[in-house]
Design brief:
The protein has 377 residues and is mainly α. The protein has 2 domains: 236 residues, no CATH class; 74 residues. 68% of the residues lie in helices and 2% in strands. It contains 16 helices and 3 strands. A 3-stranded mixed beta sheet has the order 1-2-3. Helix 5 crosses helix 8. The chain is flat and about 90 Å long. The termini are far apart.
Length: 377
């Protein structure tokens, strides 16, 4: 007796949609965004401008994260469908008969479904991004074109409220002032154009069948916002959700904080959020400094000079060889993690400069290979 594996396409897509939205943790992401604003309002009575600006970027980050997660889950669901299911997917035809879909037709439906889900996240993402480009170009104009007596935050607000140069024309004006690249002007315009397509012409959007195109456009949008953030020296927050584990990255328990907010223990929440923000600020500054140092250390002589300084300050008085090797291993591990440099591989051609001080073991291939496995942080 044969088993009937027929499955209606509508039912299959309904299941796929449920699977892709399962465990999205949207509320948790929202709490992650709002905590800095909540903390600032509780401490000072109003939201700090830095936090207000952060909110736009972090909201863009959330929509991007959710779009990528939905597409990953949806793609995984379609890829995992067994072949007998694929071969027996049908729709009801006009004469009320079953019409089985060819593999190509089925893949087209799956791609359209992916695009349909992506667009649900791209519409708000592009709406916010389009508004953020207007704010950023006003800031750039205020900070880099206006006299310092009339620029700054108050100048930005004046530009946004009175629009002496409209948002539409600000990018080209800034290009003619030599402040932004021509490509960036085009990128900003593409955000506005695609936002209008999503909002006003979605029913005519023939490209909707191509999810890869939508994902590519989203990443281009994100890169444009990041570049604008950099031009106003603002730490970009449009990729907040690239971490594997938000709790570990934030350094605090999101659910615990949410419970504290619910029970009105606001002071404790405020303290923890402030601590978290300070820690992230230090980490970001540390990352910048590490990059600067790594660039400097591309020069072997500067690297040797830094190692010699470390030796004089911390290792010169160590007589025990095992302890010395252990300290050098820790030091080399720091270079591997922070600067992506295998210290003793770089120093080996110059080992005669260190031979009288460093144990021979640290220049052996077995020792050096250990640090090839350590990934940069």
């Amino acid at each position: 007796m044969s088993v009937n594996y027929d499955v209606n396409l509508d039912i299959l897509l309904e299941i796929a949609l449920e699977e892709s939205h399962d465990e999205m943790e949207v509320e948790r992401a929202f709490v992650r965004e709002m905590l800095p604003l909540i903390s600032s309002q509780l401490r000072g009575g109003s939201a700090d401008l830095t936090y207000s600006r952060t909110l736009s970027g972090s909201t863009i980050a959330r929509f991007r994260h959710e779009a990528l997660e939905l597409d990953r889950k949806l793609s995984g669901f379609f890829e995992d469908l067994p072949s007998y299911t694929r071969e027996n997917v049908y729709i009801w035809d006009y004469d009320n008969s079953k019409r089985y879909l060819t593999p190509d037709k089925l893949e087209g439906v799956f791609n359209h479904m992916r695009s349909y889900v992506l667009v649900g996240k791209l519409i708000p993402l592009y709406n916010i991004s389009n508004e953020l480009t207007k704010i950023r170009t006003a800031q750039i104009l205020s900070y880099k074109v206006l006299d310092s007596r009339f620029g700054g935050e108050s100048g930005t607000n004046w530009i946004l409220e009175n629009e002496p140069i409209s948002a539409e024309h600000r990018p080209e004006f800034l290009r003619k002032c030599g402040i932004i690249r021509e490509e960036l002007v085009e990128d900003i315009q593409q955000i506005a154009d695609f936002r209008n397509t999503l909002v006003h012409e979605l029913d005519e959007m023939a490209e909707l069948d191509d999810p890869e195109m939508l994902l590519s456009k989203m990443e281009s949008c994100i890169q444009t916002i990041e570049e604008l953030d950099e031009l106003v020296n603002f730490p970009s927050h449009v990729r907040l959700y690239e971490e594997n584990d938000l709790d570990d990255t934030v350094g605090i328990d999101i659910q615990e904080l949410k419970n504290e907010i619910d029970t009105n223990e606001f002071e404790k929440v405020s303290e923890k959020v402030s601590e978290k923000l300070m820690r992230e600020g230090i980490r970001n500054q540390g990352t910048y400094i590490h990059r600067m140092i790594a660039t400097e250390l591309e020069d072997d002589q500067k690297l040797i000079a830094m190692v010699n300084e470390f030796w004089n300050q911390h290792l010169a008085d160590i007589d025990d060889e095992k302890r010395l090797v252990d300290e050098l291993a820790k030091y080399a591990g720091t270079y591997a993690r922070k600067f992506n440099i295998n210290l003793f591989r770089r120093l080996k051609p110059h080992k005669s400069d260190f031979q009288s001080r460093f144990p021979e073991k640290v220049f052996s291939e077995d020792f050096i290979e250990i640090f090839d496995e350590i990934q940069e942080e």
